[in-house]
Amino acid sequence: MQIYSVGGFVRDTLLKRRGFPATPGDHDWVVVGETPESMIERGFLPVGEDFPVFLHPKTHEEYALARTERKTAPGYHGFVFHASADVTLEEDLRRRDLTINAIAMDENGSLCDPYGGAEDIARGIIRHVSEAFKEDPVRILRVSRFAARFPGFSIAPETMTLMREMVNSGEADALVPERVLAEFVKGLSTPVPCRMLDVLIECGLWQRLYPSVTLTNAVRARLHRTCREALPTSLRLAALVSGLPDGRQAKGFLSRLRASAEAQDLAKILGDSMQALAELSTPENVSSFFQRYDAVRRPARMTLLLDFRAKALPEAAHGKAPDALLRAALSAWCGIDAGSIARSAPTPKDIPPRVLAARTEAIRTLWHH
């Protein structure tokens, strides 16, 4: 069998050799000169639905037959794949998106690099392999994500031109929300997430698909801090839409992207109460904020909001309440025994105001100490 490691493993191996912070992950294997029948005869288990992929009988790693593909309809699913024993390694590599991802390595470590990917790694260039690039609009997002992951790399002018053509032709309109979200999540975990957005703006995709989402300097600063401070993905996505006029629009955008319910919830709160969160400074406005966003029943959410305040908002907006005091206030607020207060209240209607008063007093006591 002719077996080669391809894709991300080879790319990251070469990047690591050059000192980049890249850790090779799992192998992607491609098999040349075989058929589905011969793979099954060797004990491989077929698992691919759209094209022939097999599990190794011992390691259970995935092995894909070398294949070509042909565009038949708009969008991600509009492809017909052809896999047979006569498909060459060079033909398989040609269908890949970028030259840096179109390098194969044999069992001896020798490279098959027909499209100059190793040289592009050495020169720091992100370049498409062939005109087939324009058949899958997700590749625009992948280019922008790689640009953010490797900020020292430049995008080849011809690749940027091709991306603009894809946007202008309407091919990018067929992007599926789930795949957009997946690329955004990965891009928001890179060293320079705003570069991903800059590339999407430069090629016109952002303006075409997301014209309502403004990327002001304040949004960029918040987004950069959420990533630098390793805040959860839900907060990073909320920061991405934190420039929208209100929480309803922010939540709606993330809903259309199929983002998690937590991300949508945080986006709505930040959209409606960003300034209030930043300016928590007295027992009264802290109590009001905790009450409004149900800190007792949703302490984990409130903790995320305080994380965002401490790490993603400008220091000048923090007012007089240091983060440690707010954390203690949250603990005190949630620590009040509402059941005991309820049992001593004269009537049921007296319970809520008494509980609120006790919680506010607990916070006020912290402020005076």
Describe the structure.
- A seven-stranded mixed β-sheet has the order 3-4-5-2-1-8-9. A two-stranded antiparallel sheet has the order 6-7.
- It is an alpha+beta fold and 369 residues long.
- The radius of gyration is 26 Å and the shape is elongated.
- It has 18 helices and eleven strands.
- A hairpin with a 5-residue loop joins β8 and β9.
- Helix content is 51%, strand content 10%.
- It has helices spanning 8-17, 36-41, 89-94, 117-123, 138-149, 157-169, 177-187, 193-202, 205-209, 217-228, 233-240, 247-256, 261-278, 283-292, 299-312, 323-335, 338-344, 351-368; strands spanning 2-6, 28-32, 45-46, 53-55, 62-65, 67-71, 79-83, 104-105, 111-112, 125-126, 154-155.
- Among the domains are: 1-128, 2-Layer Sandwich (Beta Polymerase, domain 2); 279-368, no CATH class.
- The model has no long low-confidence stretch (mean pLDDT 90).
Radius of gyration: 26 Å
N-to-C terminal Cα separation, in Å?
Answer: 74 Å
SS elements, strand count: 11
Percent helix: 40-55%
- What is the class of one domain in the CATH system? Alpha Beta
* Biggest pleated sheet: 7 strands, mixed
**Within the CATH hierarchy, at the fold level, what is the topology of one domain?**
Beta Polymerase, domain 2
Unreliable stretches (pLDDT < 50, length at least 5) are none
Family: Belongs to the tRNA nucleotidyltransferase/poly(A) polymerase family.
Pfam family, one: PolyA_pol
InterPro entries: CCA_bact (IPR012006), NT_sf (IPR043519), PolA_pol_head_dom (IPR002646), PolyA_RNA-bd (IPR032828), tRNA_CCA-adding_enzyme (IPR050124)
Protein name: CCA-adding protein
